[in-house]
Amino acid sequence: MRNYKKAMGLNMGGIAKISFCLTVLLLCWGPLLQAQEEFNYDESKVGAYTLPAVLELSSGRLVSGNKDWKKRRTEIIKLFEDNVYGKFPKKRSNIHFETLKIDRHALSGRAISKQVRIYFTKEKKQPYMDMILYLPAKVTKPVPVFIGLNFKGNQSIDGDSAIMLSEKHPELLKYTKAKEQQLIRGEQAERWEIDTLIGRGFGVASAYYGDLELDYPEGWKTGIRTTLKETLAIQPQEWSAISAWAWGLSRMMDYLETDHQVNKKQVIVTGHSRLGKAALWAGANDTRFAAVISNNSGEGGAALSRRWFGETINRINTNFPHWFVDRYKTYNNNATALPVDQHMLLALIAPRPLYVASATEDLWADPRGEFLSAKNAEPVYSLFHKKGLGVVDMPATDTSVGETVRYHIRTGKHNILLFDWLRYIDFANENLIKIK
Ligand code: GTR
């Protein structure tokens, strides 16, 4: 034993030295390691960062006009595909639609509802997604429509008993008795404000995001990334859950283009939180969306990744490894190495109207980071002579600012509420409806 210790250079003094060194190491590295795992909510600790130049081509030349922007836009899409969301398949497979139900007296006669099954292959069988569309009952001309995915199945967006129950929602599938299932109706109605939207002359279209891919790390195995692998000629790892959800939004748009009661030039894609991330990515890829709204989309959505505030790339990748492509994980704790930041995603919406919204208690989503991201997308809007936020600092709570690019921070929690919808209605009216 003595020899062994000697050979190892370990005597009591040696052990004491080692433990001393370990303690020093821990004291020095501990806070550093911790800092990476901790979440910063202190503005003074954010630190300096430099955003990648949105208007500089990879050749180093500055974008000088719309033509150059087209080139830069293509480059930026590719950077987001390679590093963040993966591909957004172009091929539409054999999309076809079946209207399963029409209710001409929905919402006590104020609306017409249509429930449409969107099939992704030639056959009339899975994989498909079910969409619910509400239109104002007294439509005399095609109406503008807000579209967005929902978290809990179509039956969750309103208490309307005509809405078909989701076939895919795991919680819903647990219930067997019809009565219990009814309980789940309208569970998220406060997030949809259908009555208000219908009353103001808008249509609303929604579908359950789980119809595309269930939201857990293994969800891709049963979702469209697997079932459409051959049809779309793309491997599951080449895209991500967010891309799959975004792609679904485009398929809803495919249907809306065919509905003569819908004004296909006035379809506004919206989304809350993770579905806001999907809405932004859908809007970036599919220019048929006339305007894009990000509601509290946060990290990997509207918020700047380089700002150390609230959720981090490391955390989002740890909690939700399926949301992004594998390469995104190489930027955990190293946002500086990312060739993009989220202002560039917002810039891809230009010159179309863009609304970014935050909430005061939603620090996890970094409201200031969302504001600054919209701010830094402005130069691209300027290329098209479109006005952005028009302010340099965040506006007062509950006040929206800007024209083509707009922003507000609502009092309250991470959510999408009547206050937000009323702002979105004004935004759509001012940017899309009046300007033909
Ligand atoms: C959180 C996630 C956020 C946001 C949110 C949501 O847990 O960290 O990025 O997407 O979920 O979708 O509700």
Task: Characterize the structure shown.
The protein has 13 helices and ten strands. The protein has helices at residues 2-7, 12-37, 66-85, 170-174, 178-183, 194-199, 224-227, 241-258, 274-285, 313-319, 342-347, 367-383, 418-433, and strands spanning 96-106, 111-119, 128-136, 143-150, 203-208, 262-272, 291-295, 354-359, 401-402, 405-410. The chain has a ten-stranded mixed beta sheet, sandwiched between helices. Mean pLDDT is 91; it is low at 1-35. Beta-D-galactopyranuronic acid binds next to loops. Beta-D-galactopyranuronic acid is lined by residues 273-274, 298-299, 311, 316.
Largest beta sheet: what is the strand line-up?
1-2-3-5-4-6-7-8-10-9
Q: What would the principal axes of the Cα set say about the shape?
A: globular
Q: Provide the residue-averaged pLDDT.
A: 91
- What value does the Rg take, in angstroms? 24 Å
Helix/strand-derived category reads: alpha/beta
Question: Distance N terminus to C terminus?
Answer: 89 Å
Helix content range of the residues, please? 25-40%
Q: What sequence of helices (H) and strands (E) makes up the elements?
A: HHHEEEEHHHEHHEHEHHEHEEH
Q: Compounds present?
A: beta-D-galactopyranuronic acid
Count of alpha and pi helical runs = 13
Structure characteristics:
436 residues; alpha/beta; ten-stranded mixed β-sheet; 17% strand; disordered N terminus; binds beta-D-galactopyranuronic acid
